[in-house]
């Protein structure tokens, strides 16, 4: 045979192996779910590459030549190894095991994500979870994380995922602070006269930060934080008012809501991953599980 192994098409060899296993062109076509002519074309391609005839063509059918017999014998162990490797790789992908890196904000980690992750782990104990709590968008393109749970109205176009619902916010204050403000003659809705807890530059992209910039004098900002959880804690301590997420502050007996939710604060919540990971078994299983678990936080959203 000519020295042309470097030009071999492995797909041609797969068709040859199917003919050997099935005993005929028709059987190979059925096994590979292709038509008869496709199998013949692949065999012709393999013979041209090797420079030998692998089959003699007779009216009664194809009969393997001595060269074909040699190739079949030599391919036997290789075909078995390839099949074993395919099973091993596919098995690892379909089995729910391995590590998943998940990123979200501190607010969502505490109030939504961690309880759901605990339930997922009870179902799939061979999956190891790595939680990265970060209020900035990690780069899933560089595999800084595999899955992201993120509030955004414009998620990156390079990622794929599903929208869970809309997160609403409203202005909140602590009862003790509000009493002290009333004692000073400040009406609850005279925003510019109140002290405020604001967002620092790392959260300047949020609608709440823009609203504060438009409605509250800079000198009235008593504290800035890079965490919505820290903002809520500061409001509880009486440091001022703040726009807070309803799911974080709405049922807190230490806080009072001062106005209806502002539609301008509305932010979508997304489950995202990189498109190259979306069909990996463990990633797909986690995304599906989290979607159904976290959708319960948004019963009024129609999907």
Automatic annotation (TrEMBL):
SUPFAM superfamilies: Periplasmic binding protein-like II (SSF53850), Winged helix' DNA-binding domain (SSF46785). InterPro entries: LysR-type_TF_proteobact-type (IPR058163), LysR_HTH_N (IPR000847), LysR_subst-bd (IPR005119), WH-like_DNA-bd_sf (IPR036388), WH_DNA-bd_sf (IPR036390). GO terms for biological process: DNA-templated transcription. It holds the Pfam family HTH_1. Residues 8-65 form the HTH lysR-type domain. The keyword DNA-binding applies. One of its GO terms (molecular function) is DNA-binding transcription factor activity. Signal peptide: none annotated. Keywords: DNA-binding, Transcription, Transcription regulation. Belongs to the LysR transcriptional regulatory family. This is LysR family transcriptional regulator. It comes from Pseudoduganella rivuli.
């Amino acid at each position: 045979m000519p020295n042309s192994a470097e030009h071999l098409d492995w797909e041609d060899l797969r068709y040859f192996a199917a003919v050997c296993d099935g005993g005929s062109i028709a059987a190979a076509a059925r096994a590979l779910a292709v038509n008869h002519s496709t199998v013949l074309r692949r065999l012709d391609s393999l013979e041209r590459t090797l420079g030998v005839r692998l089959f003699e063509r007779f009216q009664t059918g194809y009969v393997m030549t001595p060269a074909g017999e040699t190739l079949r014998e030599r391919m036997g162990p290789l075909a078995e190894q390839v099949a074993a490797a395919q099973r091993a790789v596919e098995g690892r992908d379909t089995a729910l095991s391995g590590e998943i890196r998940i990123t979200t904000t501190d607010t969502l980690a505490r109030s939504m994500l961690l309880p759901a992750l605990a339930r997922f782990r009870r179902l799939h104990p061979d999956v190891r979870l790595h939680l990265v709590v970060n209020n900035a968008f990690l780069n899933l393109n560089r595999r800084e994380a595999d899955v992201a749970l993120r509030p955004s109205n414009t998620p990156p176009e390079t990622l794929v995922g599903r929208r869970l619902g809309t997160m609403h916010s409203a202005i909140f204050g602590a009862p003790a602070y509000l009493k002290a403000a009333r004692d000073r003659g400040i009406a609850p809705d005279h925003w510019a006269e109140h002290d405020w807890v604001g967002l620092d530059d790392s959260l300047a992209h949020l609608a709440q930060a823009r609203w504060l910039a438009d409605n509250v004098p800079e000198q009235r900002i008593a504290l800035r934080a890079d965490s919505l959880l820290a903002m809520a804690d500061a409001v509880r301590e009486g440091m001022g008012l703040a726009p807070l997420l309803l799911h974080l502050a709405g049922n807190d007996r230490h806080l009072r809501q001062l106005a209806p939710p502002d539609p301008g604060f509305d932010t979508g919540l997304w489950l995202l991953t990189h498109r190259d990971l979306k069909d990996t078994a463990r990633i797909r299983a986690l995304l599906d599980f989290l979607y159904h678990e976290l959708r319960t936080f948004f019963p009024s959203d129609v999907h």
